[in-house]
Design brief:
Blueprint lengths: L4 E6 L10 H4 L8 H12 L5 E6 L3 H4 L2 H11 L2 E5 L9 H11 L6 E4 L7 H6 L14 H19 L5 E3 L2 H9 L7 E3 L27 E3 L9 H10 L4 E3 L3 H9 L20 H4 L3 E3 L3 H8 L4 E4 L2 H9 L4 E5 L2 H10 L3 E3 L9 H6 L4 H20 L11 H14 L4 E2 L14 H15 L1
Parallel strand pairs: 1-2, 1-3, 3-4, 5-6, 7-8, 7-10, 8-9, 10-11, 11-12
Antiparallel strand pairs: 9-13
Length: 442
């Protein structure tokens, strides 16, 4: 009998990890959304006759490029790199490091779901200058240096694969701008949306929102134009909570750390422990991606500008409306037919009710099977087997292994999982918090 094929996947942590809350924040790559596309890729590759290992984000800090290349060449038969908006300006150094590593490998390398990050204006004009959430201040020389790093990395991967998988049409155009041909670029979307396999369908919203509705908000303090909408929502919906998706906010929720003591932006964002949302236990963090998704099954509506905050809710079957603020968010929403609203189009009278009423999952459901098949065809084209196309035994074993992580307990701001919410907390939120705590203890 032949030995299992060994797949190594770039991931912050193992899919079945169930870490203590504070420790978990060190293994999310800065943002828990990273786990969604990494774990979904791992789940799709849970195939008969394969074994999985992983290469963590911290690998570059612990050994030389040559030592890492030796480890990969000796310990695996195929390296898989799930990535996000990694063709962004501040990633140039890491892209060069990855190019140096890939150039030393003797095994196939598959790049899954990489994306560019441009402003609306740059994407629409076709000038393709990379962007940050907070804008771009870079000279022409710096942009050229960044593009050279992108070319080096993509070229290195294509020397080890048939094609690269990108998030959407904007990234495909960006790679064409860098000189890569269309036939080496497959548009596959973000693999996180394919978490539940070929038969997933997103339910129609039920009814309308009321003051008792539970909302999950995934706001970003670097987008000041959304502060008013955040404040109106938490005022109008006492059971609305803010999800602590990125590392510094999560550590504030868990340990009460003042993680951005010097920040002096709009105080309506819950960046400091003095914010009422923090004091009233209306911020929450789940230490595993699986428990995060599970918790969102009990939410009536989720919205905000964080892409994977919306995707986590969608995977839970919850209505979502993504607030799009750059090419990264728009291209994923357009490709997967996720309801979205451009932040510049929100208007002064934007409200949770209006965003909820705009949710229509019909296009997502109509095109899902076709997009899923396209994703699997990309994996096959690049020599990877999927549990969705075999007996499913390895896929079932994957799901059994992650089951304990689905039950990880939440941490609410200003309290521990065993501490009762404050008695001056709004009654509907207090009931929901108590129900969540009881559910995740069990």
């Amino acid at each position: 009998m032949s030995a299992d094929r060994r797949i190594m996947i770039r991931a912050c942590q193992r899919p079945d990890a169930n870490l203590p809350p504070l420790k978990s924040t060190d293994l999310i790559g800065g943002n828990q959304g990273n786990l969604l596309f990494q774990f979904s890729t791992a789940r799709s590759l849970a195939a008969d006759g394969t074994t999985h290992g992983h290469i963590s984000y911290g690998e570059f800090k612990r050994s030389s490029i040559a030592a890492k290349a030796d480890r990969i060449n000796s310990e695996c038969d195929h390296l898989v790199l799930p990535m996000s908006s990694s063709l962004r300006f501040q990633m140039g150094t890491k892209l060069n490091q990855w190019a140096n590593l890939v150039n030393k490998l003797t095994v196939p390398v598959t790049l899954v779901g990489i994306g560019a990050q441009l402003s609306f204006e740059e994407a629409e004009s076709g000038t393709f200058r990379p962007s940050r959430v907070t804008g771009l201040t870079a000279s022409a020389a710096e942009v050229e240096e960044h593009e050279n790093a992108c070319r080096r990395f993509i070229s290195a991967v294509l020397d080890h694969s048939d094609t690269v998988g990108v998030r959407g049409e904007i990234t495909r155009k960006y790679l064409r701008h860098l000189g890569f041909p269309d036939d080496r670029i497959d548009v596959i979307g973000c693999p996180s949306l394919f978490m539940w396999g070929p038969d997933f369908q997103w339910a129609e919203p039920a009814g309308s929102l009321s003051a008792d509705s539970a909302l999950s908000l995934s706001f970003d303090h670097r987008i000041p134009s959304t502060a008013g909408l955040l404040q109106r929502t938490v005022d109008d919906f006492p059971s609305a909570t803010v999800y602590a998706q990125e590392r510094l906010t999560a550590r504030m929720v868990i340990a009460g750390e003042e993680t951005r003591a010097e920040w002096r932006g709009d105080e309506r964002f819950p960046v400091h422990t003095s914010n009422p949302l923090y004091r009233d236990h209306r911020m929450v963090y789940y230490p595993t991606a699986w428990s995060w998704i599970e918790s969102l099954k009990g939410v009536d509506f989720a919205f905000g500008p964080r892409l994977h905050g919306s995707i986590a809710a969608l995977l839970a079957g919850t209505p979502v409306n993504l607030l799009a603020h750059d090419s990264r968010t728009v291209e994923v929403a357009e490709y997967h037919r996720i309801p979205f609203t451009r932040i510049p189009d929100l208007g002064e009278d934007a409200s949770a009710e209006r965003l909820y009423d705009a949710v229509d999952p019909s296009a997502f459901n109509r095109d899902y099977a076709e997009l899923f098949t396209r994703y699997l065809d990309f994996l096959t084209r690049n020599g990877l087997s999927s549990g969705y196309r075999d007996s499913g035994a390895a896929l079932a074993a994957f799901d059994r292994a992650i089951e304990p992580a689905r039950k990880a307990a939440p941490r609410f701001s200003g309290s521990s999982p065993t501490r009762k919410p404050r008695q001056d907390r709004p009654s509907s939120l207090r009931r929901k918090a108590g129900a969540l705590l009881a559910r995740w203890r069990g």
